[in-house]
Each structure stands twice: as structure tokens, then as C-alpha cells.
Specification:
11-stranded mixed beta sheet; globular; Amidase signature (AS) enzymes; about 35% helix; about 10% strand; about 500 residues
Length: about 500
């Protein structure tokens, strides 16, 4: 029995029934790591010794007859921009190569109460800036379904680990699609919660008004269970929502009769891959057959989302990344004086994409351009948000593609930043509006690559999108398929 192929809820049941031990499960997952990590390269840091100790602790609890929390003993991966006390957190940047946080992120404190087994820290685009995990300073992560393709980004390591069976679940962060797009490319479930639903305390900031932590899992039930664990108010995060957290698993009824679904014409436009459009439209018909009601809607300011995002996000990034100066913490490249030292440090230790976004951001915020670019982008952001709020007066959820194409080739877009940015066209509007979105598999391309369906919800509407996703998932067989890596048989 390949334990690494199972979902977290299946493994929880096996552990509770004492049919397996946490140590057996950890060893099985690490054997999978040993078999495929050399090709996939999902991890920047592996914490094998700590993981096996965590598993032994859970086994001791089982032996005492204790009731296990949901994630107890179940191996997972953490994106390497989430602070982990005592474990290196690099953000895939040379400037933080040896940074070990002195504290845990809020989500790590919540996870600690569950006693999971942590396999390691997953690779990402440097400081979460990218859509392919090619911008990591250390290594390129490969898509487990086709090693010549990217896994998406920036949470590419997290998505690839779950898809390859080297983690059962993972946490990522989503600033413009960085959970949903890699989940789509890797054929798994990814959820970006409502802004403020999950604490950002301890998440290394990229764009503070857009960043959000969320789960990447094998199926919808696991995503709901992880949301139960990580969601909730945190006084350490001033933007944290104080709304009560429901039991998200109660929304998984399998019934979508009468659910009003919006179909935005702006998401089905020229440039959308024909196989993606076919798969998403087939999913629409499947929902209709299950009793959901369809309505054509319009989100007229969607066409401005990419340009709006790529002014606001770099502006916030330029401000957030000022702290990496070679003085406070992180690495340093010496110079003849303070200015030269800071210049050398930032020039040599930031990657090209990070430097590009810092320059865009500083330009947008500079005297004479603030009103013309940044302030105008903030106004358009409000219009984008209003589009969604107007649409949600008549529909419960919105269906759309997650990404305009299946996974593309490694190196295919790395020299064309604008083409890469356009990959975010289906995902960035949600971050600008602060609303939740979930992706799950809805098909496979002719080349055998996963295609994702995006379900978009109202603010704090995670229950509704999880319920819709679960009903769709239960009527299809796309879930739980671990990728065959390097031509092996899964």
C-alpha cells in the first residue's frame, strides 16, 4: 500500500484505527522523496530528522489512546516564505540564504496544535515574484506530470510536492494567483481565502494588501479541513478578519441544486487555450446537469486587472523590500562605505525579477508619477471590486478558467516577462478584490497536462465555493491521481 498516494483524511482514519503508524507513514513519504525529489526539486530544505521525531511523538499519543487532531502525523510541506522557528526560511533568495526565524508564523502556531509531520520547506519564485518557480535563486522545480514543464508559481514547490506524493498537503501563499495557478498546473486543489481570513503574521511580505496564505491539497475535503485549522482572527495581523470561523467540512454536502453560477464573458476571450476553454465549458454543463442555474454576467473592468496589479504589487514590494539592506539581517556584500555596501548587497543578492519589480514599484511611486500611475491603479482596483460585488447580487459563485493555458515549458517564457505576467489574467482580479477562489482539476490536455477550474466566491464565501467544488469533484475521477514522475508508473 502506497501511503503517500492517499489523502489526509484517509490517512487520518487509518491512523485513528491503528492500521498504520505515523512513523510508517513518514518513512513511506520520505522514501518517495528519495525516489523522485532529484527530478522534481520541490524542496529547498528537508527536515527528515525532525519529521521522524514528530512521527514518534504522534505514535506515543496513539499508544496512550489519545484522540488525534486531523493533521496529527500527516506529512506536509511549507512554502519557504512562511517563517518557521529554528528552520531556515530563505524566500528562495540569496539575500536570506542563512536566515533562521526566531519565531513561528501564526499559521505555524496553529499547525503545531495539530502535531503534523513537516517534511520541509518548499521552493518558490524568489520572494513569491513569478508564475513558474523558475525565479528561485537555488533551483528550478519541475512539474511532476511532465518534467519538461513548469509547476506554476510562485507556490510551485508546494504544488509539485503534493502532486508528486512527497507531501500529503502543503501551505502556499497567493498574491496574484500563486496558489491557484500552480495547483491548476499540477492537477491538485488550491484555495486562496478571502483577504484577512488567514493571518499573514510571519508570512514574508511581498505585497501586503494582496498576500494571503492558503492550502494546497489532494482533494476538496482536505482543503476544508486545513481551512478549519488555519483560518481565524489574529491580533498580530491588523488586517485579520474577526468573523467567526465555520466548520468548512459541513458545506461538503454534494448538492448544488439551485446554486446560482455566474459565467463572466471577460474570462472566455481570445488567447484562452482551446483545450482549457473546452474543459471549463464542459464543467459548466456538468454543474448545469447537477441542478445549478447558470447566468451570463459581466465584469467590465477585468481587462484592466493585469496593469492595475503590476502597479500596485511592485509598489508595495519596493516598500517591503527596503528592509533588505545588508544591515538589519540577511546576507551582506561589503563595500567601501555604507552606500556602496547596500548597493552591492541588493545588486548581487536580489534576482532579476525582484529587481525588475522593485524598479517598477519605485517608478510608480516617484514624484510626478504617483498620481498618474499608483493612485489611478488604486481607483481601478475599487472598480474591479465593485464589479464582483454587483455580480454577486444575482449569483452565488462564479466559474472561470484558473489559467489561460496548461503548464508551459521550462524556459519558454522566462525571457518575456510581459508574456509571463499575462498568465495571471484569470487570477489577479480576485486578489485585487480580496475575494476567495478555489481551483480543482476539470480535465486533461491532449499532452496529458492537468487543466484547472476556478470557482470564485463572495467575501468570506469559502463555504459556498468548497461546497460547489466538492459536488463537482465527487462526480468526476480527476482527484487523488499522483503524478507519474520521469516515466514511472504511478
Amino acid at each position: 500500500m502506497k501511503l503517500y498516494e492517499k489523502t489526509a483524511h484517509e490517512l487520518h482514519d487509518l491512523l485513528t484505527a491503528k492500521e498504520i503508524t505515523a512513523t510508517e507513514l513518514a518513512e513511506d513519504v520520505f522514501s518517495r522523496v528519495d525516489a523522485v525529489e532529484g527530478e522534481v526539486q520541490a524542496y529547498l530544505t528537508l527536515t527528515r530528522d525532525e519529521a521522524l521525531e514528530q512521527a514518534k511523538t504522534v505514535d506515543a499519543r496513539i499508544a496512550k489512546g489519545e484522540k488525534l487532531p486531523f493533521l496529527a502525523g500527516i506529512p506536509g510541506a511549507i512554502k519557504d516564505n512562511i517563517c518557521t522557528k529554528g528552520t531556515r526560511t530563505t524566500c528562495a533568495s540569496k539575500i536570506l540564504e542563512h536566515f533562521v526565524p526566531p519565531y513561528d508564523a501564526a499559521v505555524m502556531e496553529k499547525l503545531a496544535k495539530e502535531s503534523p509531520v513537516l517534511v520541509g520547506k518548499a521552493n518558490l519564485d524568489e520572494f513569491a515574484m513569478g508564475g513558474s518557480t523558475e525565479n528561485s535563486a537555488y533551483q528550478k522545480t519541475h512539474n511532476p506530470h511532465d518534467l519538461s514543464k513548469v509547476p506554476g508559481g510562485s507556490s510551485g514547490g508546494s504544488a509539485a510536492a503534493v502532486a508528486a506524493g512527497t507531501a500529503i498537503w502543503a501551505l502556499g501563499s497567493d498574491t496574484g494567483g500563486s496558489i491557484r495557478q500552480p495547483a491548476s498546473f499540477c492537477g491538485i486543489v488550491g484555495l486562496k481565502p478571502t483577504y484577512g481570513r488567514v493571518s499573514r503574521y510571519g508570512l514574508v511580505a511581498y505585497a501586503s494588501s494582496l498576500d494571503q496564505i492558503g492550502p494546497l491539497t489532494r482533494d476538496v475535503r482536505d482543503a476544508a479541513n486545513l481551512m478549519n485549522i488555519i483560518a481565524g482572527h489574529d491580533p498580530m495581523d491588523s488586517t485579520s478578519s474577526s468573523a467567526a470561523v465555520p466548520d468548512y467540512t459541513k458545506a461538503l454536502t454534494g448538492d448544488v441544486k439551485g446554486l446560482k453560477i455566474g459565467l463572466p464573458k471577460e474570462y472566455f476571450v481570445e488567447g484562452l487555450d482551446s483545450e482549457v476553454e473546452t474543459a471549463v465549458r464542459k464543467a459548466v454543463e456538468d454543474f448545469r446537469a447537477m441542478g445549478a442555474e447558470m447566468k451570463e454576467i459581466t465584469l467590465p473592468h477585468t481587462k484592466y486587472a493585469i496593469s492595475t496589479y503590476y502597479l500596485i504589487a511592485p509598489a508595495e514590494a519596493a516598500t517591503n523590500l527596503e528592509r533588505y539592506d545588508g544591515v538589519s539581517y540577511g546576507e551582506r556584500i561589503d563595500g567601501a562605505d555604507l552606500v556602496e555596501m547596500m548597493t552591492n548587497t541588493r545588486t548581487e543578492l536580489f534576482g532579476e525579477e525582484v529587481k525588475r519589480r522593485i524598479m517598477i514599484g519605485n517608478y510608480a511611486l516617484s514624484a510626478g508619477y504617483y498620481d498618474a500611475y499608483y493612485l489611478k491603479a488604486l481607483k481601478v482596483r475599487t472598480l474591479i471590486q465593485q464589479d464582483y460585488m454587483e455580480a454577486f447580487k444575482s449569483v452565488d459563485v462564479i466559474l472561470a478558467p484558473t489559467a489561460p493555458t496548461p503548464a508551459f515549458g521550462i524556459g519558454e517564457m522566462v525571457s518575456d516577462p510581459l508574456k509571463m505576467y499575462l498568465q495571471d489574467v484569470c487570477t489577479v482580479p480576485l486578489n485585487l478584490a480580496g475575494i476567495p477562489g478555489l481551483t480543482l482539476p476539470c480535465g486533461v490536455s491532449s499532452a496529458g497536462l492537468p487543466i484547472g477550474l476556478q470557482i470564485i466566491g463572495k467575501p468570506l464565501g469559502e463555504e459556498t465555493i468548497l461546497g460547489a467544488a466538492y459536488a463537482y469533484e465527487e462526480s468526476h475521477d480527476y482527484k487523488n491521481k499522483i503524478a507519474a514522475v520521469g516515466g514511472e508508473k504511478a
